[in-house]
Amino acid sequence: MFKQFWGSQGQQAQQRPQEGNNDPWYAPSASSSPGSSRPTTPSPSSSGSFGAQRPTDRPSSASHVSPAEAACIINALKDKSIDELRKLLSGDDAYQNFLLSLEPVKTQNKVRDELRNETLQLARENLEKEPRIMELRNQCRIIRTTELAAAQEKLHELERRKEELLKLYSPGSLLHRLQDAMNKTDEESESLHRQFLEGEIDLTTFVQKYKKLRYSYHKHNKKPPSTKPSSWVSPDWLTKLTSSLTLGQNDDSNIPIASAQLEDVSELLGGALFLPLFKWMNQYGPIYRLAAGPRNFVIVSDPAIAKHVLKNYGKYGKGLVAEVSEFLFGSGFAIAEGPLWTARRRAVVPSLHKKYLSVIVDRVFCRCAERMVEKLTPDAISGSAVNMEAKFSQLTLDVIGLALFNYNFDSLTTDSPVIEAVYTALKEAELRSTDLLPYWQIKALCKVIPRQIKAENAVSLIRQTVEELISKCREIVESEGERINEDEYVNDRDPSILRFLLASREEVSSVQLRDDLLSMLVAGHETTGSVLTWTSYLLSKNPSALKKAHEEVDRVLGGRNPTYEDMRNLKFLTRCITESLRLYPHPPVLIRRALVADVLPGNYKVNAGQDIMISVYNVHHSSEVWERAEEFEPERFDLEGPVPNETNTDFRFIPFSGGPRKCVGDQFALLEATVALAIFLQNFSFELIPDQNITMTTGATIHTTNGLYMKVKQRQKESVLAA
Length: 723
Fold this sequence. Notes:
Layout: H1 2-7, H2 10-15, H3 67-77, H4 82-90, H5 94-101, H6 103-169, H7 171-197, H8 203-220, H9 236-246, H10 265-268, H11 274-284, E1 287-292, E2 295-300, H12 303-311, E3 316-317, H13 320-329, H14 338-348, H15 354-382, E4 385-387, H16 388-405, H17 417-434, H18 443-446, H19 450-480, H20 486-491, H21 497-503, H22 510-541, H23 543-557, H24 571-583, E5 589-594, E6 598-600, E7 604-606, E8 611-615, H25 616-621, H26 666-683, E9 684-688, E10 696-698, E11 702-704, E12 709-714, H27 717-722
Parallel strand pairs: 2-8
Antiparallel strand pairs: 1-2, 3-5, 4-12, 5-8, 6-7, 9-12, 10-11
Helix pairs in contact: 7-8, 13-17, 15-16, 15-26, 16-22, 17-19, 19-21, 19-22, 22-24, 22-26, 23-24, 23-26
């Protein structure tokens, strides 16, 4: 029947399906753009629904009609006679009405109407909300404007105060005030003469007052402004005053005295202390005296002298280090002296035995490094800048937390206040070592001076954290009863150093245990974080070394995590770390105090009580000690030789000190740094953010001033495994 029907229309009927526009045969409202789930909003021209199409419109191609729709049309047409079909084609509205009667079209029109109503309703709701949105936007603009105005006002106030301080403490202002003091002394002197001549005071009183005024006069006396600025406006006056007070007139030590200059003040008082020490080494030689405030230091930059001081523990104690950091470390073994130090070191050292280190590589070092990789991956994908100094500091806090206490600080996920507290406390200890006046020894002042309040709060936080962790572990150990042996200890679910110390059943006070563990927490976290920071910095500045480190890690590990046994094969990577420790030692200075009079190599005499600074930075950067001392050359240390230390370099390399008081955690730190860096290199390539001004400051270790920002990029696993 269909063949007869279409055939009766002749050639014109056969061409009709291709005539007209290419719109689909069904209503526009039933269509949607490809890949979109949103309905097309009806336009005014299509608001008349299906009737807008011409009655003769039919599908332009089979691709517009689904099999289900075609079946529906066929079912509707198959029972119609030829006359009925002709009527559909000849009538003005018949074909349109026929299409509208089909169930799919009815359904589509219904859906279209519902979607159009929903769209209109949403539009009305949006229009109703627009005034509120505008109101909120205006409120935000007002808040931002207000905050900006307040910030600008505060900035202007700070600028005003800065100008006032600059005026108050400028060289000219200080000279003027000192001149006023001298004039006042002159007036008092004239008055004193008058009182004596007129018999108002006797000779004894006159002499006493005259001596006092004479001292004051000479103290304030100035050269004319046209001459070289007076030593009173330069730190050089401190050198002269301190030398006269602490050395007297008969200094036969043969040690030259360095003269501090005005530009050195910022570094001496809270900056990077080791930088002016290096400058003065180049001026005065490998040993010189630096006078600062009420004390003077002998600065040592010679390996032979450093060796003498560090190995003769009976002649040289911690001295000033203990004084300025007792507020933090208490009686911990890091600063303890004499029998207490001997006993505490003997108790702590066994906890760092080889079995423990081999276990902790996988259980702690690798797992924490993997966690850092996980946290860095989104930044690697997005290309965001990452402060790697902060990341490494978070990593090493998590490591020392698990290794020391079996406690996860999880600082890679959440900011831990312990990191800032440790840095604050260590910075305070360094500042105390160079304070012109040790006012912090007056307890009452520590309660009101902001810097001291901040330091005390930091120490309280650290101590509270350590005490809580000790308490939890003590409960576990006491519940177990019997002492465990070494093998049981390393295979236990909690092979932490704290557990080892408690399980040894040694008689030790809670305070002493706290101070010992706090020493390890601070030193272990701070040192390794800085090592990783500066090693990654040096590698990023030396692409050939970075490439070689990547190749070695890929070759040795083949995509798996490192083990304790792998350390001996990661030779180049280990030398990169030791070369980083040479260029950026942690700490950059070691402080000792002579307990008895002694003669140093070179016939330099020191008296009992003399404070000595061994500048590790100077020893490591001295051109007299190292060839190309300022260059990063990992292979200056023989790859086939032993890992460099103070013994096999004859104290030319002393990042962990030397002698009886050498750092007990040196192997722990090197292992941790090597594992962390190996896993970091396995997963990422990295480069410095351009135009960074990388400058140095110190706490107990060398930090960057403003962070170390890098871009990290994921390495292809295929290339890693292929290597």
